[in-house]
Amino acid sequence: MSVATPVEYESLNAEQLAAQIFAEFTGVPACFTCSFQTEDMVVLDILRKQQPEIPVIFLETGYHFAETYEYRDRMVREWKLNLINALPEDTKAEHESKRGLLYIVNPTECCNLRKVGPLMKSLEPYGVWFTGLRREQSPTRANLKKVEDHRTPNGHELKKISLLADWTWDQVTAYAKQHAIPELPLYAKGYTSIGCEPCTAISTDPNNARAGRWGGKKLECGIHTFSEKTE
User: Fold this and answer.
1) Exposure string (b/e) for 67-96, b if CB count within 10 Å is 16 or more?
2) pTM metric for this prediction
3) Is there a catalytic annotation at residue 221?
4) What are the pLDDT digits (tens) for 132-146?
5) Which member of 31, 110, 196, 221 is catalytic?
């Protein structure tokens, strides 16, 4: 398979792009960061059909909904996933003993300690990083490219691949239904973007699925903004 240019990457559908990346970067370790939301399950369905053992990194903050943990464990069993739980340095109890309810006082710092830091460490062995990001999800993601070169603050360089960058929510749900992907039960309760339980509410903005996150004070936890684009 010939090497694609960035313009050609944009013309590929999700399955084609995954195949292209695996062929183009043969031998380069790849991973997928997964929150077990519907977008991520669609990406995971595509990836595991081409690379069944791909590491699936879950940011285990200690603050997720019980439903998220139950769904994660169910899908790990049913899909035989190669799950890696990325853990913060402190347990939830240690964290709160030192800092109290940091997610209330300083949610950005809480995200840094329990999401961004563990992710940066987890990405070190990999040169290709698949995500479930979509342009439609939020104004902060409107200019997302399907393939981006990124550099973490410690200088680690990798390709960041967003197979569903140009997909709408209707396309996501249609794929999930067509391929019989079970749905995280929190969607049925009205949630449209799901993270840690204390910082996740039901969005009141029909045009911004992530408006219910962090009490509307911010739209990103930081895991997709800590790295620097290098292209």
Assistant:
1) bbeebbeebeeebebbbbebbbeeeeeebe
2) 0.85
3) yes
4) 999 987 777 788 999
5) 221
